From TrEMBL:
<dbReference type="InterPro" id="IPR014722">
    <property type="entry name" value="Rib_uL2_dom2"/>
</dbReference>
<dbReference type="InterPro" id="IPR020599">
    <property type="entry name" value="Transl_elong_fac_P/YeiP"/>
</dbReference>
<dbReference type="GO" id="GO:0003746">
    <property type="term" value="F:translation elongation factor activity"/>
</dbReference>
<dbReference type="InterPro" id="IPR011768">
    <property type="entry name" value="Transl_elongation_fac_P"/>
</dbReference>
<dbReference type="Pfam" id="PF08207">
    <property type="entry name" value="EFP_N"/>
</dbReference>
<dbReference type="InterPro" id="IPR012340">
    <property type="entry name" value="NA-bd_OB-fold"/>
</dbReference>
<dbReference type="InterPro" id="IPR001059">
    <property type="entry name" value="Transl_elong_P/YeiP_cen"/>
</dbReference>
<dbReference type="Pfam" id="PF01132">
    <property type="entry name" value="EFP"/>
</dbReference>
<dbReference type="InterPro" id="IPR015365">
    <property type="entry name" value="Elong-fact-P_C"/>
</dbReference>
<dbReference type="InterPro" id="IPR013852">
    <property type="entry name" value="Transl_elong_P/YeiP_CS"/>
</dbReference>
<keyword id="KW-0963">Cytoplasm</keyword>
<protein>
    <recommendedName>
        <fullName>Elongation factor P</fullName>
    </recommendedName>
</protein>
<comment type="function">
    <text>Involved in peptide bond synthesis. Stimulates efficient translation and peptide-bond synthesis on native or reconstituted 70S ribosomes in vitro. Probably functions indirectly by altering the affinity of the ribosome for aminoacyl-tRNA, thus increasing their reactivity as acceptors for peptidyl transferase.</text>
</comment>
<feature type="domain" description="Elongation factor P C-terminal">
    <location>
        <begin position="130"/>
        <end position="185"/>
    </location>
</feature>
<feature type="domain" description="Translation elongation factor P/YeiP central">
    <location>
        <begin position="67"/>
        <end position="122"/>
    </location>
</feature>
<keyword id="KW-0251">Elongation factor</keyword>
<comment type="similarity">
    <text>Belongs to the elongation factor P family.</text>
</comment>
Length: 188
């Protein structure tokens, strides 16, 4: 058993007969009244995100998990195929267990969280950023760069992101996987 002081991002807990992963949390100590922890939890079975408030010091049931590195092989409908980089065993996961499936490129290394009790995969942690090639974007118009202007672009995985006007087709860009947003252009 853990307490609310052990809550951190990525912690897997059992709550309301379901397994949740802490997406974000905030310890709040108001001037009047007891402290509490405001959390955003993602269900690892249904993918739903809910907000919950725990009073400070409350016992929570944490789940023992282990992480393993897997390489993404290919998508097939709503299932995604992964291979363990240590023993080459392959597993398939549903699209709901992935946080950003549209940013996943073949050959990408991800971390999969497994429940140690029954060895069931719980969730997939993407790398903080991925490098993708722009496959389609409109040419930028010179002169309308008075502000931080962006334009829509499609990357090689089919995802659509907003990029600055100077990005062209064929450029490689670094994309933040948590927000799905442009970070920087990558030079070869």
């Amino acid at each position: 058993m853990a307490t609310t002081s052990d809550i951190r991002n990525g912690l897997c807990i059992k709550h309301n007969n379901d397994i949740f992963k802490v997406v974000e949390f905030l310890h709040v100590k108001p001037g009047k009244g007891p402290a509490f922890v405001r959390t955003k939890l993602k269900s690892l079975t249904s993918g739903k995100v809910l907000e919950n408030t725990f009073p400070a010091g409350r016992k929570i049931e944490d789940i023992r998990v282990e992480t393993r590195k897997y390489q993404f092989l290919y998508p097939e409908g709503d299932t995604f195929h992964f291979m363990n980089t240590d023993d080459y065993n392959q597993i398939t996961l549903e699209k709901e267990t992935l946080d950003a499936p549209d940013l996943l490129k073949e050959g990408e290394i991800v971390t999969i969280i497994f429940n140690t009790e029954d060895s069931m995969p719980l969730s997939v942690d993407m790398p903080a950023s991925v490098i993708l090639e722009i496959t389609h974007t409109e040419p930028g118009v010179k002169g309308n760069t008075a502000t931080n202007a962006t334009k829509p672009a499609t990357v090689e995985t089919g995802a659509k992101i907003n990029v600055p006007l100077f990005i062209n087709e064929g450029d490689k860009v670094k994309v933040d996987t948590s927000k799905g947003s442009y970070l920087e252009r990558v030079k070869e």
